[in-house]
Amino acid sequence: MLYYLFLSSDDQEWDDKKILFDKVCRELQLDELERNTVVEKCRSMSTQEIQNLVDSMDEVYIGSNSMLKIMSNVVSTLKKAVENEKVRKTRIVWNMVNLGYADSHYSAEEKNFIDNLVEKWGIDNEIYQEMIDTCETVVALTNKKKWIVDYFMEGYERDEWERRLDIEINKMYSNIELTIQELNL
Q: What is the greatest pairwise CA distance in the chain?
């Protein structure tokens, strides 16, 4: 539910976000009925119900309610091993920041949604800012890569630029992962 609510928090085109949401559902092995149930529940929630959900996020993943299955699956997917609460919550925020930038635009609504979680969960503001900076850098590198593909003729030079940019993008993601892992120390 959290991911659906987040993806629908702004007024941007839903088609691209639907693809992302469907991908999350497939990765979580949610069948069509479960996916539709989550969507219907989210669409029918009042502002107060959404606020209550966000306020109770610490407990959401524990419930056995089938409506909350997506959250419990997301949490278990995000856990690589036994992680403390701060690491788990930081990973959720990182995934949501990534989703926010998936369309290359981190809207005010998306930012506000995540800002509330960051504040409620006590995520370090420097780590959160690092996440945002990383995504903005990745968007810039991705745009540069697209420009190179569009304007350079196929060949070694273009391939080399693409390879270098892919390495830089992967380094950016690795650095965030390292930062999150260091929270366990």
A: 56
Element (H, E) at 32: helix 32-44
**Confidence grade of residue 77 (pLDDT, cut at 50, 70, 90):** very low
> What's the pTM value of the predicted model, to 2 decimals?
0.59
pLDDT digits (tens, 9 = 90+) for 95-122: 889 888 887 788 888 899 999 999 999 9
Residue 176 CB coordination number (10 Å):
21
Amino acid at 182: E
The pLDDT score that the predictor gives to residue 168 is 93
Cα separation, 54 vs 113, whole angstroms: 9
For residue 145 the two structure tokens come to 């890569």
Rounded CA-CA distance 182/160 in Å is 33
